[in-house]
Amino acid sequence: MISRRRFAALPAAALVPPLAAPALLAGGRVSAQALVRTSYGPTTTDISTGHAGHTSLPATLGYWRNEGLDVNVFGIAGSTMGVQLLSAGHVDFVGLSGEDILAARARGIPIRSVYLHARQPISRIVVPADSGITAIAQLRGKTLGVPVLGPDPYATGAFAEAGLDLEKDVTRVAVGTGAPALLALRRGDVAGYLAWDTAVAGLEVRGMRFTEFRPSYYDELFGLCVATRDEVVEKRPDLVVGMCRGIAEGVTFGMANPEAAIRIHWQAYPQSRPQGGDEAKLLQDAKHVFMSRFVLYALEPGARFGESRPAQWERVAGMMRAAGRLPADPDLAAAYTNRFVPAVNAFDADAVRARAVRYPQP
User: Fold this and answer.
1) Pick the CATH number of 7-120+222-290+300-358 from 3.40.50.150, 3.40.190.10, 3.30.1440.10, 3.40.367.20
2) Domain residue extents for the chain
3) The pTM is what?
4) What parts of the chain have a pLDDT lower than 70?
5) H or E segment and range at residue 100
6) Which has the closest alpha carbon to 290: 263, 270, 309?
7) What is d(CA 297, CA 95) in angstroms, rounded to the nearest whole number?
């Protein structure tokens, strides 16, 4: 038990032509005519400051543009829709969990992870701190809120470890994120909330205090990946490298200067900035949401951006097999690749951090 303080829009472009070296203008700037159009879909329509690493930062700071890319970022309502849009070629990259990718491949959908983004689970199981609930087992017979209805392997495994069947022993209802979820919790319509880190942090800055429950094997899991189709991996490797390296640079900038990153995100997504109130308090609250995700991007000693560890995928697969959601012998090697890791990390991280520290100075 852990105490805590505190549709999808259709993309403008689907498949794009092979990536070519971008034409440069004076000063090394990339010609707009040379940019290759592609697309990325976070599987949420609530693109908060916590999502800045794969949305506003690489776009606003020019990291994707420097790779010759014009990236259309749009929110997708849930991973099920994300897998559908990705497999149909309506979007080139989607943020998905390992469970999403393994389940898709088990159904014959040729997608894979090309970049391990969040290095710990982003899923959260929380109840109000004053609820008196001190263990998952006490949620038997309760109604729990979720942002959107769909499979939840993380919660399924955690509940199974506590002796509960998520599908039979509790009722899940869609309450969304933000104000609707807050209302449902405060009125007692739901006894807890199964959501992702930034959604929970967003409720904490609105005054909620939570107790979080994690399975015993939490540290053996991972969170969000950047996924694409097999054909993109094989035919357009430069596109994969450019997309993922831009994200790695954006994350590096954000970790070096969260406050600057938040202000950049507010400019790119004005709806993510609360209206009114004390500026210092708004920034403090935004940083709470921001760090709820960015702490998961931190590299463990010896790790590189985007790098998967086979043992993590084996642990996720075992969890899914136990839940009956995966065949006994899944082809894990087809679900992810580390082939792009060296190229993705081929950037001057010190220069990115130095830029962040002096931002907005050039």
Assistant:
1) 3.40.190.10
2) 7-120+222-290+300-358, 123-220
3) 0.86
4) 1-33
5) helix 98-106
6) 263
7) 14
